[in-house]
Design a protein that fits this description.
alpha/beta, 8-stranded parallel β-barrel, two-stranded antiparallel sheet, 11 helices, 45% helix, globular
């Protein structure tokens, strides 16, 4: 197995590229998998996107994203269920076995954090059997606590596992995203717990860089540019039994403005230097 055999490009890392450009970039760079985003797939069409990726010989590591389950009331819940069922169907058509779930923040005007988390569990219960039917796993992604109000009321890997473990492992797992969980003093124990239960559905990497930009969502850097010990985290994920794709997901305006070919070269170099087994 080559050192890049498990490397995947999450499509947001080259946001300016269309899907055909991203697929061609992966092929040219020797990157064997791609994590797709639904908006980019929609530009091409699901059937055409599936054919494009398949004909290029690429695997689909994940589909981003589902979730946003915290809208209140019957109408909000039904809208979330409908959209997530559509996302599951798209994932199955694309050959993705993992749908990344960003669960949603507090509803407008709400301060009821326990209620929002209960709502997430309730709607996951509705979606999980459908995920099993589609052969696609819902992957709960905990986000850094600074995103709790607006994007994800699940902030730690432990919280994500508490939810996932309510359902069969083949239906609901978790995402280990370095940017969001690196700070957690319980991280090593929770990765081990996730591995023991067969719950690690995706491992996503990028670095925590400073200073944070005014839009904190865009503060991610290339692996090796910041403060995360990727060798230690990757060792923990590996010991836990994860053998799947290692997906590079970067939100950063400067990197988005860099030519995609250069971004992929840097991605491969940093993967070899900081993530791949020596």
């Amino acid at each position: 197995m080559t050192a890049t055999a498990r490397l995947s490009l999450n499509q947001i890392t080259t946001k300016r590229w269309s899907l055909p450009e991203a697929v061609r970039g992966c092929v040219d760079a020797g990157i064997p998998a791609i994590g797709l985003w639904r908006d980019k797939v929609a530009e091409t069409g699901v059937a055409e996107a599936a054919k494009l990726v398949r004909d290029a010989g690429l695997a689909v590591s994940t589909l981003c994203r589902g979730g946003f389950l915290t809208a209140p009331g019957p109408e909000g819940g039904q809208a979330a269920l409908t959209e997530n069922l559509r996302a599951l169907e798209e994932a199955a058509q694309l050959g993705a076995d993992t749908l990344v779930m960003v669960v949603g923040g507090l509803p407008d005007g709400s301060r009821d954090l326990p209620g929002a988390r209960a709502r997430v569990a309730e709607l996951l219960g509705e979606l999980a059997p459908h995920a099993g039917d589609f052969g696609v796993r819902l992957a709960i992604e905990p986000l850094h606590p600074m995103f709790c109000a607006d994007r994800a009321v699940v902030s730690t890997l432990g919280q994500a596992l508490d939810l996932a473990e309510l359902f069969p492992a083949e239906q609901v797992g978790v995402v280990v995203d370095s940017y969001h969980v690196w700070w957690d003093p319980e991280l090593a124990a929770q990765i081990a717990r996730a591995g023991a239960g067969g719950r690690i559905a995706s491992y996503q990497v990028c670095d925590w860089t400073l200073p944070l930009p005014s839009d904190a969502l865009l503060g991610r850097g290339h692996v090796g540019d910041g403060h995360i010990d990727f060798r230690a985290m990757t060792d923990q994920v590996t010991v836990a039994g994860y053998t799947g794709w290692i997906e590079v997901e970067i939100f950063n305006e400067r990197i988005w403005d860099t030519p995609g070919e250069q971004t992929l070269r840097t991605m491969v170099e940093r993967h070899l230097a900081h993530v791949a087994a020596p």
